[in-house]
Amino acid sequence: MSTPSSEPASAQQTSREEGEILEIRGGRPLVGRVDVKGAKNFATKAMVASLLGETESVLRDVPDISDVAVVRSLLEVHGVGVVEESEGVLRLDPTGAVSANFEEIDAHAGASRIPILFCGPLLHLLGQAFIPDLGGCRIGDRPIDFHLDALRKFGAIVDKQPSGIRLSAPEGLHGADIELPYPSVGATEQVLLTAVRARGTTELRNAAIEPEIMDLIAVLQKMGAIISYEPNRVIFIEGVDKLRGYDHRSIFDRNEAASWACAALATDGDIFVGGAKQQEMLTFLNVFRKAGGDFDIQEDGIRFRRDGALRPVSVETDVHPGFMTDWQQPLIVALTQAEGVSTVHETVYENRLGFTQALNKMGADIVVHPEGIASPERRVPRRALEQAAVISGPTPLHGADVVVPDLRGGYSYVIAALAANGTSIVRNVGIIRRGYEKFFDKLTALGADFDVIG
Ligand code: EPU
């Protein structure tokens, strides 16, 4: 791949990683090694947890992605000292935390969904909080009703305003009895981050139990919290008066690891993902194998490649321990090359299959049924928002001009373009930086043929 030769190396690196438009010449297998750091969907939450401590926290393996930058900036406007001690190691000092002014917080409106998790810690610390309009990927309505209902049960007063949400807790927060309508990841984190310092005990039923949540529980326990859980999605939290800082290494990003695994499958490549672990990826690995993938679990990572022709699979996304919604988009790219008809039933978000239109433009044969798959006996109670994609393969892919719609969809477009014959233009790739660290460098390391053209 080519870069302007007159710039110093560091400037080249910055402009390359910040590019928005890629020209990709496909048809080449991705081969080589990439390393994954801490999970986007954990590290950002652990950073918020640092607000609860009375002393400094150290978070290790923090990925250099824009969601982390947003949370860092929000912590800083609240007076938390954040220092990157060395690559991926953040020191977070909450001892000077203060109320931020509206303009500073509002500057983060629309940038990420994580700010909603500041509610509990800020209410404990300052008795009030202001949360700007939330951003994140446009993959559905993404309401926050579970969060706000839970916060009210803890005793918070919630005032929705046109520019955001103002919360206060004049009498402090107390333990609560909460049953989530659905095991929401974010709402479970909200309850954990609020209950640990609330007066009394909290019982949370129908909680999410994703590995990233278990790692957040581990962080909170290191800080002095008392949290126990039962097999049936019940979590008990005994509130404590004070918490201290933590020193913790983030759980690896299993979504990124699964993405590279699918890239190996789609391009008929061979990718070693350093830092990937088996335990947290069991469900993914089963589907990967059924689809014709082969993997070797090694001490320091997992090697992914094909095992002959790709085979069709039938997958339903679900909460953990099911097949994660974040895995389906890169998998669908690989399934366009499977010999037969696959189905992917999305049960978590109502608009996470729209990205398939661009794959069809590249030669795929994917039909999306907006009402999901009819079945009277569903493992997960049927939700109104389900969709199903039927993917008929194998279909050779060809180059196209496509615009990235969201994080995982965007990653999938890049992989599809790399698997396709001919040249593609992929626009709006900046979104991919929200969740994939050093994305262009990793593509280069795997032998991808592309240029940053805008
Ligand atoms: N939901 C509600 N009301 C709420 C909260 C959620 O109706 O108050 C609904 C959502 O609209 C959605 C479902 O419940 O239909 C699941 O949402 P959940 O709260 O579990 O998701 P989240 O916390 O907003 C996190 C990840 C997502 C990941 C989901 C599911 C972060 C920052 N985001 O979102 O990650 O898909 O859990 O595992 O942790 C990604 O990484 O690309 C991504 C979108």
From TrEMBL:
Query: Which keywords accompany this UniProt record?
Result: Cell cycle, Cell division, Cell shape, Cell wall biogenesis/degradation, Cytoplasm, Peptidoglycan synthesis, Pyruvate, Transferase
Q: List cellular component terms (GO).
A: cytoplasm
Under which EC number(s) is this enzyme classified?
A: 2.5.1.7
- Primary location: cytoplasm
What's the name of the protein? UDP-N-acetylglucosamine 1-carboxyvinyltransferase
* Binding residues annotated for UDP-N-acetyl-alpha-D-glucosamine, in chain numbering: 113, 326, 348
Q: Which InterPro entries match?
A: Enolpyruvate_Tfrase_dom, Enolpyruvate_Tfrase_sf, MurA_subfamily, RNA3'P_cycl/enolpyr_Trfase_a/b, UDP_GlcNAc_COvinyl_MurA
Region annotation (Disordered) ranges:
1-20
- Residues the record marks as active site: 137 (proton donor)
A Gene Ontology molecular function term for this protein is: UDP-N-acetylglucosamine 1-carboxyvinyltransferase activity
